[in-house]
Structure formats: C-alpha cells, structure tokens
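Page 37, top half.
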Amino acid sequence: RREMRALYAAADAFCLPTRGEGWGLPVHEAMAMALPVVATNFSGVAALAAAADAWLLPPGELRGGFAQPTARDVARALRDVAGDRAAAADVGRRGRTRVASLFSPEAVARAIVAAVEEV
C-alpha cells in the first residue's frame, strides 16, 4: 500500500481508458489522492465519478458487454489535463472531496446504519 501511495503521489494524472471495471479501485484510489482522473464512463467508474470531478471518456460502442473508448478521446482528455494544470488540480481536488463524501469511514457508517434501520 505504501508503494502504491507513493506511485500515485509521484504522478501528475491518472488515466484508465478501461473496457470495464467492477468496482474501479484504481480510479477510486487516484481520486482519493486528488489526482486528475481520465477514465471510461462505464461500469464501476460511472458509479463513482462525475463529470465535475474527472474527465469521463465516452464508452463508445459496447462489444460483448465491454466499452470501446477511443484513442482520440483519451488524447483529447489528456491534452486538457496537461493544457491547464491549475484547472486539472481543481478537478483532482473535487474528486478527492467526492470520494471522501461517499466513502469516508463516517459516510460508510452512515450508510450501514441507514440500511440496518431500514430492515
């Protein structure tokens, strides 16, 4: 875990043009580290990220249940990130805030208590 945190901390951005993710742990970790994130708006990523806190790539045509992000969309998003580092840092901070609001220990505890009370 320490090495992964160091790797994220050394990066300027995180890019995962995935064809499909269950949970999307790497995206979650990158957002928690306040990195600007470029990822496919599909599957687990779509449940975690929003357009305000990440560069979400169109999934393209689904083939066999998998997304097909294009190299053109990836390149465009990465140019946006590199072209305005201050704006990218703002997006990264919003991503960190989103992850904290959804998955901090307190947020998870509230969700568990609400689910138990519902039962």
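Page 37, bottom half:
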Amino acid sequence: MTAIPATEGTDAAQVGPPPPFDAELRPLLDAAAAAGRPVYTLEDIPLLRQAPPLIPVPTDEDLRRGGAFEVSTEQVPGPAGAPDIPLLICRPAGVAAPAGCLYFIHGGGMILGTNRTGGLLGAIDHAERLKLAVVSVEYRLAPETPYPGPVEDCYAGLTWTVAHAADLGVDPARVIVGGASAGGGLAAAVALLARDRGAPALLGQLLVCPMLDDRNDTPSAWQMAGLGVWDRAANELGWTALLGDARGGPDVSPYAAPARAADLSGLPPAFVDVGSAETFRDEDVAYATRIWQAGGSAELHVWPGGFHGFTGAVPQAALSRAAVAAQRDWLGRLLGPPLPV
C-alpha cells in the first residue's frame, strides 16, 4: 500500500505494514519484545527515572578519554525566575586555538535523562575525532517542568556558552547545537529561538532522530505503533508530559514542537537523520524537506531498517557505523579541518 501524506485523519487503516528492521538490529528488538512491552502513564515517570540505565552513565574519568579532554561543570543562570542550569563542559586538551563547540542537548523523551546521558557519548566520540569542545546542558524535565521550561533552559545555557566562549576556549563563530531524539527536537527549537531572537549565531544544527511533532499522527507513527524502541504510545506520553491538554491541539508553539513552525527560512545548516522503521521518520523527512523549500540547507539520511536510537543500541552494526560516519563527515565539512594540537 502506498503511504499517504500525514494528515489529521491518518490512522492505522490508511498505511501499509511496517518496513522491515535491519537484520543486524533485529535481534535486540526481538529480545525486548520477548520481555513484553509495558504501557506507562504520567504517574509512572518517577519509577522510570529510577530504572538502571541501559548504558552506564560516564564518569569524569570516562569523559577525559585518557587525557583528550579537560572536564568541568558550571552552574549558569537559567531563564528569568528559574533555577540555575548545570552545564557539563568537555574541552579538548592541548589545543592552542579556540575550538569549535558542539552544544549538546540530551534525549529522553522530554521526561528522562541528564547532561551525561541521552547520546552524550556519541557527541564525545565526534568531538575527540574533530578536536571539538562539548557543552552538555541539563534542562528541567517534564511533567514537573512543562513547556516552555525545557527549551528556555537550553537556550539560556547556549547564550551563556557563547557569551563565555573566550573563557571556555571556544570559537563563538563555530558553535553547533545538536542532540538526539527529544534532544534533537530541543536543538531544532533552540535554533528557531536563536533565529527569532537574533542571537546567538549558530554554525549548524545536528538533529539525530529528532522528536519534532506533538500531533503524533504521521503514517510512520501509526505504522510503528507497538514496535521498535519509542512507539506511538511512548511518544504520546512524552508530549503529554510536556504540553498537557494542549498536546495535538491548534495552539502549540513551534518552540515546543518545531514541526509546527510556519517558517523554516533563515536557519543554520541542518543535518537530519532517522531510521526508516521508527515513529519519527515522516516528521523528520518533512522537516528537512521544508527547510529546502524555504531555501535553506539540510542533509537528510533515512537509514533503511533503522529503529529509534539504533546507533547507540547496536553500535557495532554496519548500519550504525555508516550513520555515525555520516554525522561526523557533515560536522567535519561544516567546521573545517581539526585544529592543530
């Protein structure tokens, strides 16, 4: 059956069967399916946060990478009237000139994670190869802090980072905002805020399987219901935690759900990637397409058979290695050659 464009009336009867998962990725999903798929509610979120992480949380020593990085933390001013924001700062050691910077926003469905989780290790891998600094922000989580708290925290941390670039050894003209999943959605939202508020200038936006559309009603959202890692039910939970009863309604801000933005012109170059077998496929493809239609620059990758977060879950798979290489290649072309040590 041919997939139809995403419309408000899309449902499971209007789309074909789900695309197949990549053969190297499939065993992990089969094992997870055999264990059963629980259905969570807002009341379950505190328990979810207490569950052991699938990937161990890195220590400062882990992040130093044998002396490749200097690791520090800062508490910086948050939005007006809000608490200070924790930033985790990893600076390349022994680099004389100001470094480019990846301002990283962690994933976790808007409800989970810290500035040491949600894709940080992948960001550090890129930074080690490219001699970048990484500044990872810890934003307040929903539902305790609904929109606009999380995105305003991320924006405040970004403005502090650029304002203190000299102290951090960072080149303020070479700052890229990036993140995965919810962090990718927040990164896109921060890029919109920076454009509309006139600062700070960003070199690019790295959007890895970004969570962009609260309507949760694309053909891929229906195709992948009950499948993969982050399905339609989980997506509804995350967006409801952030937006409450406004989720899916007519008045959701583009700074909450970037797919709602009417104008995608004037944005920094974007890298957008997503698996073909995941909930976010169609909203991410549409976002890159609309950037092109607005005259902007976007590089889009749809990885065949990829599920949500496959690069971190099965890093040794050929598809994962190709996806990570594509991200790093884009970063390298955008930033230019690594700085000398």
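Margin note: The longest strand covers residues 170-180.
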